[in-house]
């Protein structure tokens, strides 16, 4: 059987001569006939004649047609059509490599051209092309997948370099077109070129056409609302976004090349116009990592992010089981503003750009990385629901998380000094990952580093060993003291140091969350900010310091301070602290402060409106400080009140709570006391 014509109702008729064929055709198009040609003369007919019909549409295959309503960006049509052209070219390459095609491949490329006068945009290739039967099969019967048949036929061969399904997204062309034409000629010997035409309805027409070479032209008659797609700059923009790494050269427009002939004074330069290839057909992630240098990776990063800082290091991904995945992920120099680093990972499917919104493919913290991942197991036309439920996507996510953790662990073990030098950027990434992914936390706790006030870095186990002697409380908890603002909390840091305690720095934007997260997951460890309590209670021991004041004296001190501060309801505590500690301290209990800060970071009032609360403060009077003893023994009530107020304001000043008129009053009072 050499030819197949489809009309509307099913009948099969054997044709033995031309008269029989003409007789059947005279009936018209009211019925569907399958013509089986028995006569050799008829078998060799080269013409298709004019065929009209209706595109096969049913509930199973309607979706590709209505794609024009489902794409969020209309410019996606060009990606789909260029991807199809690339697909047809790669299939021909594959057939040639398997001996199924013995002709000359020539220069395979995909060309895009604009004819403003005619109002057309054309995508041309020199790939497989199609016969009339194939147009009928692959274009009119929308649900049919050409690649399914192709891959099935060659299932024992390597077909991994074929982009998706033949005809994928073809009908997206109608998003921007009043009419679409296909002029195509099959690579098969003796094929007749044909032209398919459709105005966006289910009506189509197939006729003979003139085309010298194999391949296809997809001609879009751009509609009035989409004239932007007849502008060179707009097409360049789309091609650079979606097609910059496609495997077959994509040609659009021209560029000037300068050719130098001769040397020295006799040298001449000639400028010539040549076709412009807009894509890199062999991007770095498609190459063998063993053949690549560090400079190759850095140059590729510049190609992806021309204005970005040099990356810290990178991971080359390459796996073919249980899913296919290649790519390169870079660790950028991360600043405190996480948002400027998000959405920098580009997702491809066989070198065709899909999206840079990868939060449904990668864990959120991996969104801080830069680079490319490419997987044929993720289709071009993806939806969030697909990504969230697909098993391969979940495997890919878990694999990349593991590879990132392994890379960091390897760098830590092989070059501790270099790892520490990069910790400022790596740290934010690692902490974010530990907070958001349990499996990553388990791996990262081995190389997550904690920096103290001496700018020395420790792993968790190393730091536990360092503070073992001094910072284990009566219940056996290792107490990690930390500061979020070394300048503002300097007084409290110095108090801790005098006690022999070590203090960590947790001053990045995510450390409030990180502290709570770490504490929940590590056994017998407590984290306390240095101003969360008095120095004696930060690490509670069995033995406490004795107070120099009797119980009556302590009660008197409380009353003096309440009167001086004009607040009888103020909650004041008297504690026995070292004499060198401040006369009055304002401490912010760890739990309440954390809750308030987290609520503020989330915006608004947070849980129970805590973000709007002033925050819980404890005011502690040092029973053993000489100034408190002086206040208690003073017989001048005015002097007593002045000193008490001054001691309290010193405490406020140490917490950055003294501002405005209160600060001015404190300065004036301090001068007055000094001059006495």
- The radius of gyration over CA amounts to 38 Å
What share of residues is helical? 25-40%
Strands, count: 24
Strand content: 15-25%
User: What form results from the Cα inertia axes?
Assistant: elongated
In the CATH hierarchy, what is the superfamily of the largest domain?
Answer: Histidine kinase-like ATPase, C-terminal domain
Q: What is the name of the CATH topology of the largest domain?
A: Heat Shock Protein 90
In the CATH classification, which architecture of the largest domain applies? 2-Layer Sandwich
How many H/I helical runs?
22
Strand order of the largest sheet: 3-8-7-6-9-5-4-10-11
Look at the structure and give the mean pLDDT: 81
Alpha-beta classification: alpha/beta
Assigned CATH class of the largest domain: Alpha Beta
Tally of individual domains: 5
The span between the termini is: 117 Å
Q: Report the biggest beta sheet as strand number plus sense, adding barrel if it closes.
A: 9 strands, mixed
Ranges where pLDDT stays below 50 over 5 or more residues in a row are 1-46, 58-70, 143-147, 157-168, 604-614
Write structural notes for this entry.
GO terms for molecular function: ATP binding; ATP hydrolysis activity; ATP-dependent protein folding chaperone; unfolded protein binding. InterPro entries: HATPase_C_sf (IPR036890), Heat_shock_protein_90_CS (IPR019805), HSP90_C (IPR037196), Hsp90_fam (IPR001404), Hsp90_N (IPR020575), Ribosomal_Su5_D2-typ_SF (IPR020568). Pfam families: HATPase_c_3 (PF13589), HSP90 (PF00183). The chain is an alpha/beta fold and 676 residues long. The protein has 5 domains: 10-45, no CATH class; 67-251, Histidine kinase-like ATPase, C-terminal domain (Heat Shock Protein 90); 291-412, Ribosomal Protein S5, domain 2 (2-Layer Sandwich), CATH 3.30.230.80; 449-538, Rossmann fold (3-Layer(aba) Sandwich); 551-588 and 611-674, Up-down Bundle (Four Helix Bundle (Hemerythrin (Met), subunit A)). The chain is 35% helix and 20% strand. The protein has 22 helices and 24 strands. The strands form 6 sheets. Strands 3-8-7-6-9-5-4-10-11 form a 9-stranded mixed beta sheet, covered by helices on one side. The chain has a 5-stranded mixed beta sheet with strand order 12-13-16-14-15, with helices on both faces. A 3-stranded parallel beta sheet has the order 20-19-21. Strand 10 (250-261) and strand 11 form a beta hairpin. Helix 21 packs across helix 22 (660-674). It is elongated and about 115 Å long.
